[in-house]
Specification:
Elements: E1 2-6, H1 12-17, E2 23-26, H2 49-55, E3 59-64, H3 79-85, H4 102-105, E4 108-113, H5 121-136, E5 141-146, H6 152-163, E6 168-173, H7 193-200, E7 208-213, H8 220-228, E8 232-235, H9 236-242, H10 244-255, E9 261-267, H11 289-302, E10 305-311, H12 322-343
Parallel strand pairs: 3-4, 3-5, 5-10, 6-7, 6-9, 7-8, 9-10
Antiparallel strand pairs: 1-2
Helix pairs in contact: 3-12, 5-6, 6-7, 9-10, 10-11, 11-12
The protein binds manganese (II) ion (2 copies).
Length: about 350
C-alpha cells in the first residue's frame, strides 16, 4: 500500500543524477520485513497495556528472551528476535491453507519483550509473569516467543491467574516431558516447568496433555510422578502408529475434560531436528513441521485458546533459519485459525470482568 509520495529533492545533484523523481513511500507494515523496526510481521509495537485495551487487540505477541535455565546448549534468548525476523512477506498476508487474510480480520500487535536481564532467573520469571499478565488482562490473547521452556511456568501461570486457576488445560508439544522435580537441584530449570504449574495449582495434572515425547528423558521415577498426577501423554510412537491427527483429536478432548480454555505450548524440539535443528536439546525422530502446523490449526479451531508459547528456538544452531521459520509459522497458523473463527462470528478476545 503506497502511503505518500516521497517529496522529490530539487537540488542540483539530485537533478543531475536523476534522483529527483517522485517515488512511492511505504508504511513500516508494508515494507519488506528486513527494513525498519524488528516487530513480528512488521506489526505495530504496542507495549502500553492501556493502549492495547483501548484498541481492543485480539492477539499480542510477547518476547521472553531468556535462556539461563537450560540444561544443555544455550542460545534461546535470541529466539524472539529470530522468530520475528523469519518471514519474507509483509503487509496483509494471505493464509492459503485456511483461506483467510488474518490481519484483515484480527487486530494483532507486537507487545514487545518482558523486561529480562541475563543471569537472574527469579527476576526474569517475575518479569515474564508480569508482562504476560498485564497483556492478558487487556483481553488480548498472548502468544509468547521464548526463550527456554522454563518461561512456560510464569507465562501459563499469568494466564491461569487472569482467567481462573484450574480453568485452563494445556496441550504441550515436546520431545521431553519437562516434569522433573529439579535440574541438579534447581527448581526453575527448563526441565521442570510443567511440574511447577501442576504443584502450584495453576493447572490440574489431569488437564495436562503432552504430545511427541521420545528419546531417553525423563527417567522412570518422573513418569511415575506424571501418572500419579493424572497427566496424559502421547509418545511419538503413538503418532507413528495412529497418525498425528487422531492423536491430536484425543489430546484436545483430554485437555478440555473439565477446563474452559486451552493454553498451547510448543517446544520446537518436537519437530525432527533434521527439519528444525536450531534448538538446545535436539532429539532425533520427531514430528514433521507440516504435522505440527496442522495440529495447531486443528487445536485452535476446536478450543477456546487463552494463550500460547513457542519456545526453545536457539538461533546459533539454526544454520538455515528453518527452526525460526517453523516457529514463526506456528504463531501464524494459530493467528490464522483464530481469524477464521472471528470471521465466523466467534469472539476471540477475552472480555475481562468490569472492575
Ligand atoms: Mn520443553
Ligand atoms: Mn524439549
Amino acid at each position: 500500500m503506497a502511503q505518500r509520495p516521497d517529496p522529490a529533492p530539487v537540488d542540483s545533484f539530485a537533478v543531475a543524477n536523476g534522483w529527483n523523481r517522485d517515488y512511492e513511500a511505504y508504511s513500516d507494515f508494508d515494507l519488506p520485513t528486513y527494513v525498519g523496526p524488528t516487530t513480528f510481521m512488521n506489526l505495530p509495537w504496542v507495549t502500553d497495556p492501556t493502549v492495547l485495551r483501548a484498541r481492543r487487540a485480539d492477539v499480542a505477541i510477547i518476547g521472553a528472551p531468556f535462556d539461563d535455565a537450560v540444561s544443555h546448549r544455550s542460545g534461546a534468548r535470541f529466539g524472539p528476535r529470530a522468530i520475528r525476523e523469519a518471514q519474507y512477506t509483509s503487509g496483509s498476508i494471505n493464509s492459503l491453507q485456511l483461506g483467510v487474510e488474518p490481519f484483515e480480520v484480527l487486530d494483532v500487535v507486537d507487545a514487545g519483550d518482558a523486561n529480562v536481564v541475563p543471569a537472574w532467573t527469579e527476576r526474569a520469571h517475575a518479569m515474564i509473569y508480569r508482562k504476560v499478565r498485564e497483556v492478558a488482562e487487556t483481553g488480548a490473547i498472548p502468544i509468547v516467543l521464548g526463550g527456554d521452556h522454563s518461561i512456560t511456568w510464569p507465562a501459563a501461570t499469568a494466564i491461569a491467574e487472569v482467567r481462573r486457576p484450574g480453568s485452563i488445560g494445556i496441550v504441550h508439544f515436546d520431545a521431553h516431558a519437562d516434569t522433573a522435580n529439579d535440574d541438579w537441584g534447581v527448581l526453575a530449570g527448563h526441565g521442570t516447568p510443567m511440574r511447577r504449574l501442576i504443584e502450584s495449582g495453576a493447572v490440574k495434572g489431569s488437564n495436562f496433555v503432552q504430545v511427541g515425547l521420545r528419546g531417553y528423558w525423563p527417567p522412570v521415577d518422573v513418569f511415575e510422578w506424571m501418572r500419579a498426577h493424572g497427566l496424559r501423554y502421547h509418545l511419538m510412537r503413538e503418532i507413528e502408529d495412529r497418525g498425528a491427527e487422531a492423536v491430536v483429536a484425543d489430546a484436545i478432548a483430554e485437555a478440555l475434560d473439565g477446563p474452559d480454555y486451552v493454553y498451547l505450548s510448543i517446544d520446537i524440539d518436537v519437530i525432527d531436528p533434521g527439519l528444525a535443528p536450531g534448538t538446545g536439546t535436539p532429539e532425533p525422530g520427531g514430528m514433521l513441521t507440516r504435522e505440527v502446523l496442522r495440529a495447531i490449526r486443528q487445536i485452535v479451531a476446536a478450543v477456546e485458546l487463552c494463550g500460547m508459547d513457542i519456545v526453545e528456538v536457539a538461533p546459533p544452531y539454526d544454520h538455515a533459519e528453518t527452526t525460526a521459520m517453523a516457529a514463526n509459522r506456528a504463531a501464524l497458523e494459530a493467528i490464522s485459525a483464530l481469524a477464521v473463527k472471528k470471521r465466523a462470528g466467534t469472539t476471540i478476545r477475552w472480555e475481562p470482568p468490569v472492575a
